[in-house]
Amino acid sequence: MTREEARRKAEELVGQMSVEERASQLRYDAPAIERLGVPAYNWWGEALHGVARAGVATSFPQAIGMAATFDTELIHSAGDVAATEGRAKYNAYSAENDRDIYKGLTFWSPNVNIFRDPRWGRGQETYGEDPYLTSRLGVAYVEGLQGDDKDVLKSAACAKHFAVHSGPEAVRHEFNAVATKKDMAETYLPAFKACVQEAGVEAVMGAYNRTNGEPCCGSKTLMQDILRDEWKFEGHYVSDCWAIKDFHEKHMVTHTMEESAALALKCGCDINCGVTYLYLLKALEQGLVTEEEITEAAVRAFTTRYLLGLFDGSKYDDISFEKVECEAHLEVAQRLTRESVVLLKNDGVLPLNTSAAQTIGVIGPNADSREALVGNYHGTSSRYITILEGIQDKVGHNGRVLYSEGSHLFKDRVENLAWENDRVAEAVIVAKHSDVVVLCVGLNETLEGEEGDTGNSYASGDKNDLLLPEPQRKLMEAVFAVGKPVVVCLMAGSAIDLSEAQDKAAAVLQLWYPGARGGKAVADILFGDCSPSGKLPVTFYRTLEELPAFEDYTMNGRTYRYMEQEALYPFGYGLTYGDVQVEKAEVVKVDEATGDAIVHVTVRNAGDTATGDVIQIYVKDQKSPFAVPNHSLCAFARVFLNAGESTEMDMTVSGNAFLAVNEEGVFVKGGGSYALYVGTGQPDSRTAALTGKKCVEVPVTFS
Question: Which residues of the chain form CATH 2.60.40.10?
């Protein structure tokens, strides 16, 4: 049914409810109204990288790993898989009258916040630091989750956390993020706008913090002026969990539960994840809210439920439980992992070969770790394949695999009664008896993640610095000292200082959190069954010294668009086993109405290995005083080329890429003179030094 039809049905149903019943439906755990045939419904569902917290489901790489694919079609497929499995599980659970938390069809994903600072523990949930990349991937995932039929929702996606939210976790409940109008429009809001206006995202979730003085779940500026009035958002708004009680307990903008509930409702927050809306009726008695405001929120909520077909049925009702973790879905996950792995360095040691004479040493606390596969907000897999297991399966009887844990993830010993660094000697022994070492280091969700969810209480899920935990640094030094070729595999959801690995390792791979069965795909890459082709969606800085304070939300010095220092590994960087080169690029057409530029690109794989790669276009406004200091990603496309193969392709650069944002946050005509840079990475000197390639520069002039 159309949204108009769904809303009419919602108005009719809500019109039969008492005000008490209407208010009860604004809780995330909405109770049943048996006399009207309304079953209980829990709005809280998670599907950040596959259906989460609801039992068995296909497990994708963590969102930051999915971002490294730069593959909108594959991200769309992942969203579709999550929606299909969500439907399959909902259909089966409902038949058993199980309407518990995490078992509905409203998924609070994707997270389209900007990963502006590498210390932020929840950055792993995002699509990286670039607003254009985040917009494209966010739209793709939302469209995958919600389905191709605009009148029938397969599931309901939710763009979060609106807005200007990226740490610090420890103070998020009282923190005021101060952002200029320019930074808001240019960096923090574009992905949300795209999800609303292009993808028609059904829900938006507010953040815990304040933005420019207003709590994000009670902000007239964000929720009314921008979201509903300017962007014409028609879906429902949900608070982050227990965020509304922060109004009076932490932000001190209200005094009572009733006042907090009233502020949120009046600004347009329809669903309360938390308990503050239990006080709505008291707020009504005190004249703080009106019955009409309660009714409107309930109508919005039931409009979504009707669009999902929860009352009149849906064409998705016949999706069976057999779809969960089916072979086709697992293959999508494997493709995502293969495309997400980023090769940061390779002196020729990769790909490895399997032979009877070859001994491979696998070392490190993340080598055989299930936790390091899945990141946070994860589901349950019926099978896990760690990096060690993937290598063992690949080698089989064609060689020998030795293993040592090497160190604890962060403690100074594995066995409590042992000496410090009690596994280092074993790691050294393994390295000495090996021809090549695969060293798996990094973090997991106990060290980086959301405040309250990690064991990293000293930083509430954020990182204090960019260093690996000390036991792992000592392990790495000891393994390097043996002198064998070492392939460092970093499993983490954020940038880590890999300067020593860059100097001493034979190869370096960024694996992110590759998904429950990620070890198989990683082994495929290590042994050359496929080529790595991921690109960094974040900058790997050399130190924190070049960054502003964590609490500073200005973009000055942050991300590749504003940074002044040279990166260790730049945004957009990633090597392959092939040698894809952009040989020619030219603007062949400019649409007078939209300003879109069509760029014709000739690409060749000059290497001897078939590989995927990502062709990237960056724009530099050479005259506008409002332009970003460096350059901005404005188009990208995946290619796959056999050895020696060439292809030609047209890529579209949106006319919006040639606009600039002034200090009032208004998009204005740019300087008129631009450079487009077309290549397999950024047009910066560090990328050129690491790859030996330079982008093709294409001048563009507008009158």
Answer: 580-701
